[in-house]
Write a structure and sequence with these properties.
By secondary structure, this protein is α/β, with parallel strands linked by helices. It has 12 helices and 13 strands. Helix 7 links the parallel strand 7 and strand 8. The structure holds thiamine diphosphate, iron/sulfur cluster (SF4) and magnesium ion.
């Protein structure tokens, strides 16, 4: 239960990271989600990624909307800043927080209903503005919290638990994120932590709008035959275009790969993405080709996963607005109040 804190006791020899913290230091309260819910696996992947990156928990701000998915920030990073906003409104709250304090690491957690239905406009503007964040959608194709109605990401022709057929075309948030200018776009599966953890690590280190759509089966309402968001369907139709290894600057690149199958992408902070190409024709630097490829594979019933697009030096909202390096919330009266002389000269320049 959310109100029951986890006992602080742990094995004295738990692995510690560069900050001397162990895995438990990145956990949150006990989850109240259904046993087997994909969202809990994503929380586990976030905990693992933040532990491996040695992130100081107090430097992270986690924000969400409303839904089972949006409840999950309570279950990880218990020592971080958290804000559970209104349904579909997480992106504007996150944008405001990021503008006020550019020094925190922003993690937006949302659901397919939260982002593709009521919050679609908010999602779109946050992505196109290039807010520096990792935006995760835990995508189960239904409104889990309100008992399993189809959401806007449910595939046309897919079946609800009681047999109704969805007649609407789906919204593909990955396709939208690509079209709207996100500079890091990936899709993964809650049942594949080997793929998901490095993607989360790389996306957190990425400067700019990073988006990961994680297919995350709802075991209560959308895990039956006829669903395209079930564990069985995704396992059978997963087409992984590449496999990612992610190294922060201080880590040595140790993995050996056959030449020609691997590409290294260096990000602005010196961290390196090593991409092992599984679909040699797939180019994660070509935004338009990526959109075409995704649509073609979707039409064939495949779920394309991996790092789908990356532009390491795209920049972020603060770069576009040319804001000062000091977080706005740390500016004092002296910086915020121009002298009379400066004000006169500024006004004169506009006459
Ligand atoms: C303004 C408003 N409208 C409707 C609701 C009811 N509501 C709560 S959660 C939800 C859908 C959540 O779906 P999703 O974001 O996919 O999360 P999931 O539970 O599937 O993880 C809805 C419609 C609400 N809380 N607020
Ligand atoms: S209703 Fe579905 S999404 Fe919500 S906790 Fe249960 S399995 Fe997860
Ligand atoms: Mg949902």
């Amino acid at each position: 239960m959310t109100y029951i804190a986890k006992p602080r006791l742990h094995h004295p020899q738990l692995l510690t990271n560069a900050l001397g913290l162990n895995h438990r230091d990145y956990e949150g309260a006990v989850s109240t989600l259904c046993a087997g819910c994909g969202h809990d696996s994503i929380s586990g992947a976030i905990i693992q990624a933040c532990f491996e990156l040695s992130l100081p928990p107090h430097r992270v701000a986690k924000l969400s909307g409303i839904g089972c998915s949006s409840k999950t920030p309570t279950y990880f990073l218990g020592a971080s800043h958290g804000f559970n906003s209104v349904h579909g409104r997480m992106p504007s709250v996150l944008t405001g927080a990021n503008l006020a304090n550019r020094d925190l690491i922003y993690l937006g957690v949302s659901g397919d209903g939260d982002s593709a239905s009521i919050g679609l406009g908010q999602f779109a503007h946050c992505i196109r503005r290039g807010v520096d964040m990792l935006y995760i959608v835990e995508n189960n194709g239904v409104y889990g919290l309100t008992k399993g109605q189809f959401s806007a990401t449910a595939d046309k022709g897919s079946k609800a638990k009681r047999g109704q057929v969805n007649t609407d075309d789906p919204i593909d948030l990955v396709g939208l994120a690509l079209q709207l200018g996100a500079s890091f776009v990936a899709r993964s599966f809650s049942g594949d932590k080997t793929q998901l953890v490095p993607l989360i690590r790389a996306a957190i280190q990425h400067k700019g709008a990073a988006f990961i759509d994680v297919v995350s089966p709802c075991v209560a309402f959308n895990n039956h035959a006829g669903s395209t968001k079930s564990f069985d369907y995704v396992r059978a139709h997963n087409e992984t275009v590449n496999q990612l290894d992610f190294m922060i600057e201080r880590e040595a690149i140790t993995t050996d790969y056959a030449p020609g199958t691997v590409e290294t992408v260096v990000q602005h902070d010196g961290s390196a993405l090593r991409l092992r190409k599984l679909a040699p024709e797939y180019d994660p630097h070509d935004r338009i080709a990526a959109m075409t490829y995704l649509q073609q594979r979707h039409a064939a019933g495949e779920v394309v996963t991996g790092l789908l697009f990356v532009e390491a030096d795209h920049g972020d909202l603060h770069a576009f607005l040319d804001t000062v390096d000091t977080p706005l919330n740390a500016l004092g009266e002296a910086e915020l109040s121009p002298s009379l002389d400066l004000l006169d000269r500024y006004n004169a320049a506009h006459r």
